[in-house]
Amino acid sequence: MIGWLQGTVVFKQANQVMLNVGGVGYEISVPVSVIEELHQGQTAELFIHHAMREDGQYLYGFSTLAQRALFRELIRVSGIGPKLGLLILSGFSVDGLVTAIREQNSAALVKLPGIGKKTAERLLIDLKDRVGKQVANINGKDLGESHSLEFSNVAPQEALEALVALELKPSEAAKLVDAAVKVLGEEADTAALIKIAFALKLQGAK
Fold first, then answer.
1. Distance of alpha carbon 88 from alpha carbon 32, whole angstroms
2. Do residues 76 and 22 share a domain?
3. Sign of CA dihedral 98, 84, 43, 155
């Protein structure tokens, strides 16, 4: 499964971008907020949700882990597919959507095209308890955009993502991955980095 991509922006349109990664063009659907950050010819990095269905494989890209985590929660809600999930994330920042969910603010959601009152209420009810667990510890401010883009290779990014998914705080996970990279070098694979990161965490707990 593809979890992260770094490449050159070949073109962008509406809610889609193509990245040239090692000579291969990846078509990635993204929220409008991500499109606005990208420019043709620049090097871009995106966290990827890789969906495999009977009719093909689809990539959805996000600027932060928190944004991707929210997308994954959204598409678990009945009646919310990837297209509508991207629409919602185009209309809300991560903090804004989390706040709307916590406050059960359906009025904010129904302002978006394609979101009716029943859909908004179902989404808010379904996500009320889940968002705290899945997103609260993975926010863009904790990761920091500059820090999330420091690693030049995929393995450190995947290790960082794995540690955060295991409920380590993003700031702690980033420090552990940094330390693991210093021990093993940036060419180390993901599994080795995670192993060393946990070893360092255990040493620090003693």
1. 10
2. no
3. positive
Total domain count, the chain? 3
Question: Is the residue at 196 inside a domain?
Answer: yes
Is residue 171 situated within a structural domain? yes
* Domain that includes residue 116, residue range: 65-140
Alpha carbon 83 to its chain centroid, in Å, reads 16
Greatest Cα pair distance in the chain: 53
φ/ψ of residue 47, rounded to 5: -85, 135
Element (H, E) at 73: helix 65-74
**Cross-strand partners of 18:** 11, 27
Where helices occur in 82-189 by DSSP H, the ranges are 82-91, 94-102, 106-109, 117-127, 130-134, 140-143, 145-148, 154-165, 170-184
State phi, psi for 49 to the nearest 5 degrees: -105, 120
Residue by residue, pLDDT tens for the chain (206 residues) are: 888 899 999 999 888 999 999 999 999 999 998 999 899 999 999 999 999 988 899 999 998 888 888 899 999 998 899 999 999 999 998 889 988 998 999 999 999 988 999 999 999 999 887 775 555 445 444 433 333 434 456 778 778 777 876 667 777 888 898 898 888 887 788 888 888 888 888 887 54
Instruction: Tell whether 32 and 75 lie within a shared domain.
Output: no
Contact 82, 30 (CB under 8 A): no
